[in-house]
Amino acid sequence: MTAIERPGTSPGTGWDVLAADGSVVRIRPIRLDDEPALAAMNQRVSDESIYLRFFGINRGMADDYTHHLAAEPGGHVALVAEYGDNVVGVASYEALRTGEAEMAFLLQDSVHGRGIGTLLLEQLAATARENGIERLRADTLGENAKMLRVLVGSGFEPVRKLDSGVVELVLDTAYHPATLERMADRERAAENRSLHRLFSPQTVAVIGAGRKPGGIGHELLLNIVKGGFTGSVYAVNPRADQIADVPAYPSISAVPHTVDLAVIAVPAERVLGVLTECGESGVGGAVVLTAGFSELGSAGRELQHQMLAIARRHSIRLIGPNCLGLVNTAPDVSLNATFAEVSPTPGALALAAQSGAVGIAVLEHAGRTGLGISEFVSLGNKVDVSGNDVLLHWWGDPRTAVIGLYLESFGNPRKFGGLARMIGRTKPILVVKGGRSVGGRRAGVSHTAAAATPETAVDALFAQSGVLRMDTVEELVETARVLAVPPLPQGRRVAVVGNAGGAGILAADAASRLGLQLPEFGPAVQQKLAALGAVGTANPVDLGAAASPTSLEQGLRVIVASGEVDSLVVNYAVTRAGNVADIYAAIAAAGDHADLPIVVNCVGSAQAAPEIALADGRRIPVFPFPESAVRALAHAVRYAEWRARPQGVVPELPRVDAAGARVVVERFLRHTPSGGWLDPQEASQLLRCAGVPMMPVLTAVTRSKAIAAAETVGYPVALKTAAPGVVHKTDIGGVRVGLANAVQLGQAYDEITAAAGGPQVLVQAMAPAGTELVIGVVRDRLFGPLLMAGSGGVLTDVLADRQWRGLPLTDLDALEMLHSLRCAPVLAGYRGAQAADQDAVLDVMQRIAWLANAVPELAELDINPLVAAPAGAFAVDVRMRLTPAAPEPDWYARHLRGDQP
């Protein structure tokens, strides 16, 4: 289901979503004051719909039903759909028994066929899942074909058909992969319909087009005209009949035809009135160029909020405000609705940028390098259309081979991650994330919270979703040039060949630094290269300064045919032995039949074209420096590896106790409503609910009780302070290990309590020998729970050996985290040492991920250390902080990512 992002809006007020026809619908929880609107809806429902819903023609049953939902609390959950100013649908479920509920809904006839019933159903299923309902049941008359199609299309499966003609169906609220795929397909189709009038309009009106050159509106109008827009264009200006040979009208309502796209360039104080008039005139999309909104503070944010409300009321999709405009280079559209001086050339890169200046830079560079643009949009303040929206739009665009984004902020990062995982399987997504230097570490007591920064969250999101993070927009364009040309690299083996030995060495150094491999060619290949006059044949291959275009072509053919490499870097310095045209022809002749990617670094010719055309229409990118060519190729290798790997699954975990965890959390928050740190026993209880093995531990507040606890646990034991406020116990001498008897324990108790200033201690069984790790969780306001794994114990902060991932955590995510740690060789059994039970560590990671998902109040968690021993993994010390946080509101993102990746 398409959940349109609305920054700053409380989830409790509902969600704006896209119906199948691209119109905007609001779905929200039912309220007591909804009863009059529901009664009015009941009057608009036909007799046939009443019969099919209530199995009889009794309109009073509809009023009883909606009164029950709105005015009678308890036992049910209900959602309403608002379209325009009316309530047009209601969906509900009534609990039947543990984990099961019965669902029903009613929709007014005028909105049938728009997918609103499906949207209500998907949201209701997600809400049910959050509330512990595993199955929804529905009874429908067999003759109600429309309803049956909706239910079956949403994942309901027929269970049985009763003698009365009623079909009983059931839905697993967790969703199966096929159901999630259907949801994604519906969203993509709805998004395309919704954005069609923005990106492919037949009529455009520029509101605020000035009569004189230099103004934003005037220059944008000129760009539309000069760009060869294939549709009709109008100017709106009350003081002109014509501007730049374009007919002008005093208002949008005076334009003689329905306008698909309105580009608004009037002062900020006039935007709301203009947008309202656009809605009343049937405009489907708007681009607001004007600045002066949320970027200026609270007053601007309020104006922006009102702007969005107007757009929603009239189902207008809105780009901006404070933006540059948009571009579509498709020949049947040819729209340049920007006020930039750049004239975009057609190409394979689709780009969205929050910054207009960055967008201009990319447009210019993409055109200069031959890559070109399929579509471009400047998002500005992202009041409505966001990066997630255009991702869905470009997913199915046949002209777009690579998607590029310049983002300064995320409106809905969890949804972004889910979309990127799906889209990235067919199209690479390259992102430059601005604002790396803004913001520092989070305030947090735990190691995990202290280590978490906005950048760790972004990097974790990108790592899981296959997004390639670029440092600069130049790097984005360079990488897109490689990824836009099939095929993808099939491995990390790269050959460097050319007549420029120094450039070859630089390319080889860059390749090694970026993790690519330069295998030495076999004897047969080296002999053939030597026969061509090569002075270096191993790899890099140096053909010699006097190498001709013919010898270059033959050398490339030998390497391509060898099958010993997966990609090829050609470095060629232009000399008197061959001109650029001949060199390019030689590379093209060898590349025409190559089934591996080729990049070229051409040195010594300012006139060298930025690409080499092949006979089949592909174009080999040419770079001015060897390092930039190799860097772009390395990104392509990383993307190919991510796309080729299995997606992984979220394991089903035995021995977890969600009900027990809720008891611990609710009991704690009853006594500590504002939240806080759990005591060691409470934290241990939650770990046990997750099934995490923990070394036995008892608390004590006196010397004698500590000795008694040690007798119960069994010597040898560890003794730790549990005094309030002590975070890093070892820093104050608050830990003793290997205590073998009561004498040693008593002495340690005296020393520890004196150092900590409190009598509270933990007495714990000694863990087996092993590698100390840290496993942690911190809940980010935007990104949700983030899981950390790293080197533990006293080395946690010294080594900063950490890996981060978001939820859901697949088995492959966890494995990559563990294998990416610098301490991974130690876990594997370094220098003959016995290997740790890595499966046990992975199991603990999955159980902590489960706990973070099952307990939305979990704000911080540290298991430090987690001892990874040969015979298992054991939590030795745990800290947890709970807050009275509501369950994760982003139901769409969670079910898009879902219990499946």
Overview of the molecule:
- With 901 residues, the protein is an alpha/beta fold.
- Among the domains are: 3-174, Gcn5-related N-acetyltransferase (GNAT) (Aminopeptidase), CATH 3.40.630; 487-644, 3-Layer(aba) Sandwich (Rossmann fold), CATH 3.40.50; 696-766, Dna Ligase, domain 1; 771-897, D-amino Acid Aminotransferase, Chain A, domain 1.
- The protein is 38% helix and 24% strand.
- It is built from 29 helices and 40 strands.
- The strands form six sheets. The protein has a nine-stranded mixed sheet with strand order 1-2-3-4-5-6-7-9-8, sandwiched between helices. A seven-stranded mixed sheet has the order 12-13-11-10-14-15-16, sandwiched between helices.
- Helix 11 runs parallel beside helix 12, helix 16 packs parallel to helix 20 (626-644) and helix 26 (811-820) packs across helix 28 (838-854).
- It is globular.
- Residues 1-12, 438-444 and 887-901 have low confidence and may be disordered.
Corresponding CATH architecture of the domain at 3-174: 3-Layer(aba) Sandwich
CATH class of the domain at 3-174: Alpha Beta
Major sheet details:
9 strands, mixed
The radius of gyration computed from the alpha-carbon positions, rounded to a whole number of angstroms, is 32 Å
Count of individual helical segments: 29
Sheet/helix structural class: alpha/beta
Indicate the CATH topology of the domain at 3-174.
Answer: Aminopeptidase
Number of strands: 40
| Average pLDDT rating | 86
Distance between the termini: 17 Å
What level of helicity do the residues show?
A: 25-40%
